[in-house]
Specification:
Layout lengths: L5 H12 L3 H14 L7 H10 L4 H8 L5 H14 L6 E4 L3 E4 L4 H20 L9 E2 L4 E3 L7 E2 L1
Antiparallel strand pairs: 1-2, 3-4, 4-5
Helix pairs in contact: 1-2, 3-4
């Protein structure tokens, strides 16, 4: 069964608000891929939301509104900018993508590559020593904000 997952994605956003985003994603995956549930059905989403630890009233209010729709649209736009065309898609350190179901070795290699990129960027950061700071009106002082001299 192919389902419109827009409301399920809104439910994930609600769960994130309560620190339950990962729990909700796992519960939705199990419901759809293992249990064959229709994740576009509001009654199903209500039950999934409660299974993940959300209050029924809050889930119901969200489903009967457009709450979190802008967040889901923003996620869709980010995916388009990144060239993501399907799921599953895993973005590592916002730089390296893995598309589709892949063996564990592909993820291990991807994580190593992402870490190497991260470390290279971290080492390339400029080390600075703080000195006097001057405002546009000519007042200069140490980083603590204490005035040293004035033009």
């Amino acid at each position: 069964m192919i389902a419109n997952s827009f409301d399920a994605h809104r439910l994930i956003q609600l769960a994130k608000k309560h620190g339950l985003g990962d729990v909700m994603e796992e519960r939705l995956f199990r419901a759809y891929f293992t249990e064959g549930k229709n994740v576009s059905d509001h009654n199903t989403l209500m039950q999934i939301g409660m299974d993940a630890g959300l209050r029924a009233v809050e889930v119901g209010e969200m489903l009967n509104s457009d709450e979190f729709a802008a967040d889901v649209h923003a996620d869709i736009m980010q995916a388009a900018r990144l060239g993501i065309r399907g799921v599953p898609f895993f973005l590592l350190d916002e730089q390296l993508g893995i598309s589709g179901a892949q063996p564990a070795e592909v993820f291990a290699d991807g994580l190593q590559q992402a870490w190497a990129i991260h470390e290279k960027a971290r080492k390339a950061e400029v080390n600075t020593t703080e000195g006097a700071v001057c405002t546009p009106d000519g007042v200069c002082g140490p980083p603590s904000g204490k005035t040293v001299n004035k033009k």
